[in-house]
Amino acid sequence: MLRRILAVTMRDLRSGMRDAMIPYILIAPLLVAVLFKLFVPGVGSTVINVAMPETAEPAFAEYVERYGEVELLEDRDAIVKRVQAMDDLFGIVPKADGGYELIAAGDELTGTVEMVQSVLSSWQNPDLEPPVELKISDMGWELSPLARFGTNFLVVFMSVFGGMIVMLNLVEEKQYNTMAAINVSAIRRWEYVLGKALPGLILPILHAFAVLVIMGFTEVDYLQVAVVAFAIALISMIIGFVVGVYQSEPIGAVASMKILFLPIMASVFGAIFLPEKWQPVLYWSPFYWAYRSVDDIVLQQAAWSDIWLHNLIIIAITALVFALMHKRIKQGMRA
Predict the structure, then answer these.
(1) pTM summary value
(2) At how many degrees (to 10) do helices 261-273 and 286-298 cross?
(3) C-alpha angle 98/101/105, rounded to 5°?
(4) Quick count: other Cβ atoms within 10 Å of Cβ 170?
(5) Which of 84, 181, 194, 262 has its CA 20 to 30 A from that of 67?
(6) 289-305 burial string, b = 16+ CB within 10 Å, else e?
(7) 3-state SS of 174-189?
(8) How far apart are CA 209 and CA 204, in angstroms?
(9) What does DSSP say about strands 100-103 and 90-94: parallel, antiparallel, or unpaired?
(10) Backbone angles phi and psi of 71, in degrees to 5
């Protein structure tokens, strides 16, 4: 039994690798997470970021570091090139007359130029205290909101890619007319369905792990992550089966699968922006409950009782969806 199930799974993986679509689905979520990580600001990012030459006076560099971050570069040309990059960074180049050249791109945050000028004036005039005050506030959890919400969204959103794998494998079966052969083979139907479903159940878990590692959440409870990712993958897999048995070409199947994007985005953005009293309007969505679980996990405040409760709701909604669609799936697999 297990051998027949794994045989179906391995056959799908081998045949899927011949199509560029499936390797893309495997890799694309990780690339999205890497790109998102590059654009998420760190918690400890400073307002003033300065580049100066390596020959700058060490005492001056240490003084500027009291108000921001200092990056030492080779010469003025390197500083100019660095200032022209995407982030807000100023260049300070000492001049022969004892003054300093301030280099700016012109698109910095409002007020930051004046702050750097004040720091320079204070260095040149020790009796002048710069109007810059640094305060560190500890709210108990140092986490960028963008990193938190973005990571939660990616984990929930990527569950749909497991369903896409199932869908594309079924479409391939229809393209090569192998579905009829499966129906008369020795393999049981439930073994065939489980073999097809395995990649769609395992892939979201692996994607969730990878996203959390890439985003720097390495201390979360990965067992809780696996349980939530598995539960939310169920409904994506069911939709993948429904679309796969009725579509006959990959592009149309992928377009049909995008129907999941709307409830996912509505659930996530609703959970983030809707006031607490309006949250019940999202209780119908399994993606809403998955988002709440992932959010608690990322914040490291998830209790197993809440995880099981949310998963029970997800599975109940999934069972309802399956009850509504299982006849269509059964009929489509006989075609």
Answers:
(1) 0.66
(2) 50
(3) 170
(4) 25
(5) 84
(6) bbbbbbbbbbeeebeee
(7) HHCCCHHHHHCCCCCH
(8) 9
(9) antiparallel
(10) -120, 120
First-to-last CA distance in the chain?
24
Rounded CA-CA distance 272/278 in Å is 11
The count of residues in the chain is 335
Rounded Cα distance, 12 and 25, in Å: 14
Q: How far is CA 295 from CA 147, 155, 217, 251, in A?
A: 11, 10, 12, 33
pLDDT of the chain along its 335 residues, tens only? 677 777 777 776 666 666 666 777 778 888 888 888 877 654 444 467 888 998 888 888 888 888 778 889 988 899 998 888 766 788 999 888 878 888 888 766 666 777 888 888 878 777 655 555 544 444 344 556 678 888 899 999 888 888 888 887 777 777 766 666 666 666 776 677 777 778 888 888 999 999 999 988 888 999 999 999 999 888 888 887 777 777 777 777 777 777 778 888 899 888 888 888 888 999 999 999 999 999 999 888 889 999 999 999 999 998 888 888 777 776 666 65
Q: Is 98 left (phi over 0), alpha (psi -120 to 50) or beta?
A: left
Alpha-carbon gap, residue 294 to 151, rounded angstroms = 9
Extents of the domains making up the chain: 2-39+143-334, 48-124
Residues 48, 112 contacting (CB under 8 angstroms) = yes
Cα 96 to Cα 56, 99, 100, 119: the distances in Å are 12, 7, 9, 19
The SS3 of residue 94 is: strand
